[in-house]
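Please think about what follows:
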Amino acid sequence: MDLRHLRYFVAVAEELHFGRAAERLHMAQPPLSQAVRRLEAELGVELLRRTTRRVDLTDAGRAYLARARRILGEVDEASHEARRVAAGAVGRLSIGCVGSATYSLLPALSRGLSLELPGVDFSFRGEMLVPGQVAALRSGEIDLALLRPPVADPSLTVLPLRRDRLVVAVPADHPLAALPRIGVADLREAPLIVHSADRRSVMYGIVLRLFRDAAVEPRVRHEVGETSTLVTLVAGGLGVAVVPEPVTALALEGVAYRPLDAPEPEIGLALAHRTDRTEPHLARAVAVTRRIVLGRALR
């Protein structure tokens, strides 16, 4: 069935006048009349009773009008929905964040994404380590990841966002807290709290490389899976930790943060997604996320 003929019939049925319906549809009256007759012929029923003075709906026409309106309404709604999907205005996305991004970026990110993409349903997972993020991206468990490079996976697109300084979290009453800057050599005798080696944390490798390059043997006392647990143990006086500066957003009483004095005192932050994912709403979320993160980096 030609939907145009359906629209033509509805216009005539609502106006009960071919001339007014033709004007409403911005077309000539003869083609409109022919289109409605073709519709009646296709259905095999008379929908309109025509006289020289007026047009009336038959009983079949009244029943058909009610259904035709519903059909056209659903078609219009489907067209609107398709355009919104093509524009990236609707969809569902899950974003996984490393620990430092959980505390420093997630509040602004969730707020900004919800404001700019109100038709997209976002969910967030915090305190993820990079190997877990990579696995979740591959499986589709999450759609985007704020993570710490390096990531050597050809199936993923990794977009660098910024560089974060490394700082040392120390108990507020520790002698190291009196230093304006802390070097790796200053940590020679300090018990160290690190992210778990078993879970292949990127930060674990970076911290051990810092100590190795400084020819200092690390005294690892605790390995933890979550950044919040790591900082909590520091606050409890159980050791010190090297963390990205955004972790300072997790303000806990009893913890002091000091800049790390090292040859490479920074770590990258990147946004990753599967390369084969090309949905418009994901592309828009990537653009908004980059703008939010880069905007905060310039402050």
The chain has a mean pLDDT of 89. DSSP finds ten helices and twelve strands in the chain.
